[in-house]
Amino acid sequence: MRVDLFDFDLPQELIALRPVEPRDAARMLVVTPAGLADRAVRDLPACLRPGDCLVFNDTRVIPARLEGRRGEARIEATLHKREGLRSWIAFVRNARRLRVGDSIDFGAGVTALVEAKLDDGSVQLGFPGDEPVELLLERAGQMPLPPYIASKRPTDARDREDYQTMFARSDGAVAAPTAALHFTPRLMEAVAAAGIAHETLTLHVGAGTFLPVKAEDTADHRMHAEWGRIDAATADRLNAVRARGGRIIAVGTTSLRLLESAADAGRVIRPFEGDTDIFITPGHRFCGIDGLMTNFHLPKSTLMMLVSALMGRETMLAAYAHAIAQGYRFYSYGDSSLLLPEG
């Protein structure tokens, strides 16, 4: 399909630079075959049914953006995928100044060696020593805010908390599963009281989620792989939800992509551990989920294609036009939508 079919005009002032407080006070646009409804995130329990199950991504964002020098050259690296105990693949600004074997000084006693330069322009970095890489990043790294936020204001200490969900426990993401940023303990209590279950899985979100689609046709776009895991017990409980007539509602496109990677054609969710580079576009048959809670996405992005696959392109373009007209806040720190293809 042509990528420009997923384009729309977004006023820059609707890009949220900070989340609302409290988190569950964000607005939520409910999209069903019956039409659109303006709600708030705290209304979520009333928008679902007893027996449904929300599925969250428990990945934890690490401070994966590093600024340093190789000699006189300024180097900025954003780690996006672990390749080994001490090796990471990174998107590097000024990568042309690097050669295999070069050492980069990121300050605070943190250095990295260039282990390889890859065909897609990314760089494999190795961190020498015995100290866990996560501790090195805590010392020298910054939270990797999306470009549409980082280009408008500097990262600060507040982002260390704001850009982390209440479910975060498994280190490894370089982008937050932002749909879950709206959840609070108070909201989760209301969810449970309404008879709605919840489960967690892990998908370490990579910085590739922010890369623009440069191809003119979706068939020519290549997704970056991300590592995920659904254990056997979680898969069994999710299948039991469906067996009892409940729906599986993914909280975020990251949870959705992993569930779709793990589900078979019979709509059975299997245990999964490994990389996935699933690219969901219109025509995809959804087998792992029955609905999606997600923020508002970039024009011509893979995520705009994903929500169009779930609800229909015309429906989503109409929903986004409504959201823009009503002043919804967009992107990672913005408002939410609840997409229910069967109402």
UniProtKB/TrEMBL annotation:
Protein EC: 2.4.99.17
Compartments, record wording: Cytoplasm
Pathway involvement of the protein, from the record: tRNA modification; tRNA-queuosine biosynthesis
One annotated Gene Ontology cellular component of this protein: cytoplasm
Keyword annotations of the record: Cytoplasm, Glycosyltransferase, Isomerase, Queuosine biosynthesis, S-adenosyl-L-methionine, Transferase
Catalytic activity: 7-aminomethyl-7-carbaguanosine(34) in tRNA + S-adenosyl-L-methionine = epoxyqueuosine(34) in tRNA + adenine + L-methionine + 2 H(+)
InterPro entries: QueA (IPR003699), QueA_dom1 (IPR042118), QueA_dom2 (IPR042119), QueA_sf (IPR036100)
UniProt keyword ATP-binding, yes or no: no
GO biological process entries: tRNA queuosine(34) biosynthetic process
GO molecular function term, any single one: S-adenosylmethionine:tRNA ribosyltransferase-isomerase activity
Keyword hit for Ubl conjugation: no
Similarity annotation: Belongs to the QueA family.
NCBIfam families, per database record: PRK00147.1 (NF001140), queA (TIGR00113)
Self-association and partners: Monomer.
Known function: Transfers and isomerizes the ribose moiety from AdoMet to the 7-aminomethyl group of 7-deazaguanine (preQ1-tRNA) to give epoxyqueuosine (oQ-tRNA).
Protein name per its UniProtKB record: S-adenosylmethionine:tRNA ribosyltransferase-isomerase
Species of the source: Sphingomonas changnyeongensis
Gene name linked to the record: queA
